[in-house]
Amino acid sequence: MTNRLRVASTGTATPPSSVPTSTAPADGPATGKPAPRAAPGRRGLHPARRPVLLGASLCVLALLCALSIAIGSRSIPLDQVLRVLIHRDDGDVEAIVWGLRVPRTLLGLLAGAALGLAGTIMQTLTRNPLADPGLLGVSAGATLAVVLSVSAFGLTSLYGYIWFAFAGAMAASVLVYLLGATGRSGATPVKLALAGVGVTALLGSLTSAIALTDPGALDRYRYWSAGSIAGRDGSLVAQAAPFILAGVVLALTLAPGLNSLALGDDVAAALGRRVGLIRLQGAVAVTVLTGGAVAVAGPLVFIGLVVPHATRMIAGTDHRWLLPTSMVLASCLILAADVTGRVVARPQEINVGIIVAFLGAPFFVMLVRRRRLAEL
Amino acid sequence: MAAPSTSTPASAATSTPTSATATAVTTTYGPLSLSRADGRTAVRLARPAASGVLRPRLVAVCAVMAAATFAVFCLGIALGDYPIGIAEVVPALWGSGDPGSLFIVRELRLPRALVGLLAGVAFGISGAVFQTMTRNPLASPDMIGITAGAQTAVVAGIVLGFGAGLGSQVLGLFGGLATALVIYLLAWKGGTSGYRIILVGIGVSWLCSSATDYLLARARLAEAGQALGWLVGNLNGRSFDQARPLALAMAALVPVALALGRVTRTLQLGDEIASGLGVPVQRTRLALMITAVGLVAFATAAAGPIVFVALAAPQIAQRLANLAWPPPLASGLTGALTVLSADLIGRQLLPETELPVGVVTGVLGAPFLLWLLGRANRTDSGG
To answer: Do B203 and A306 touch (CB under 8 A)?
Structure first.
């Protein structure tokens, strides 16, 4: 009886229907059009337009960088900003531009690139639309480590946090991967996702328990957890940059492998891909990218959840274009939100994590309604 | 996955109809008939016409879960500052015993235990419905924004001070229901699909949780502490005012959820196949949404958004019962057991802080789910 049930539920060559990996089209009866599965470039832009999209988003990104350096709580004339950028003379303006605005812009670029890439990889690896960069437990581990560092070791400076956050992120993701990858079939999407959710919930509960019993930790935690790229020092950027850049390289080289993996494990293996190796490289890339981003900017994981979906709807499912485009678009979103947050509530500022939701969520919902959905 | 040893019985299972006619043994007891074929027992009832497969393991899981839930329920009432013998608890529930302990049991401790029990069942069942409907083990009301909407409404009430007369219960209820309505309307485009509901839910959830973060960051520290206490789910100081509406809502919604269970599983096959099999896909999905959202909104209003129960309980029940889908009733009982034991452990472990139940559910439920996952890995029956 039991044996029969198990066979019926999992023994067939295709995955059981309860898992999200089944390849039934998403939108069929709703739109009346059958949605063929994931031939790269079937949806969204014409293939020839994809470089145009990437180029256009790079231009927008450059414009946003310029705006981010030019605009702030204190209005400084544009010619002064330009002069200070070229000749670094002493004074207030130099301190504001080089000490505050440039690091902040770089941080936005790095965090956005990291989260956009990590989210795309995570969704393809687990083949689950609900997967975010934090699903491997990375951001929950980092958060717990930060709260612990405040509560148990009494740290107050961000220089202390970043290494704690990074160590927490690494430990959590190794735990998730080990839990998800044991057994003969290796790290299947469902096992990885469930192991990640379990570990994330466990660490999140511990974080809440500490924050609730220690008012000092709660006070720091609530600001950090909203996510921000403001007030970070240039040296912090320098510390996080090598990790994120290494992660970017790891991620971008993964594109052909992810394209095969999106067709299913069996097909990918038949195409000569080493599925386990691709997954491992993906997991390492996600950990390094998310760990770096969360350590410096706080848990902004929603960006990594939504931007890949939006990019997939616009640019199609080919990872060779999807990965760089979502990387650039995520940076754009963070910088646009950051600039907006400085302007709307002058002289105060609103956290980038909050603005980004109010800018991004309506746009995202509109995209979901407009486009035919490319199911993962 | 597709090892040769498993593919052989699988093909035997598909050829059941032919072998079943040869080997089926049917026994009839009045209107009830049982037929055993190929290791399964089918039950048929002549009037009202109904049939189904008897799953002894599922029945056993339900029975064990129900017994364990009742035991923890009574234990939770018995333990406290004024301990009452567990032998006195059960009679006191029915109103016999000395007036002192009767008052403590029925007026002070019963509401809290009832809210825990009912909220646990509601979370478990709604999680099972959502996961089956969207075919996604990560989908739960927590993930697609309904809980986030309720949280935003309540935190706004605490921090901005509006609707103080309404209380967090009413605010949470309306927040959750309004969010669900917004998600459904935004996902509607000549019909909905499970996938689009998930994606719109993500967007709405993002907006709501950011609004909550904003409110928390601008709140005073005491208000933030109070709000965070509610945000993780809390059973402290519950009275019948919270238990009564929840009980009424569940009396209406749980039977619907259980009755829709079979259609839900057909929907799991995909929209085309389901409509080919004669299921009215859009109407069924709407009915399922209303039921599951109603359950989770009332439960969140009464107990706060107890995290992780709606996600983990169905997955735990599915693995215990060894099925390919989360069974609703067993999921509900698992949810109730999780919430009640988490409440008990939180109270006993750190009595001076009264750790909110939502904190303990994660610590309690996650390792158990991970253990089940690890066991499934070893026997290689998949995730």
So the answer is: yes
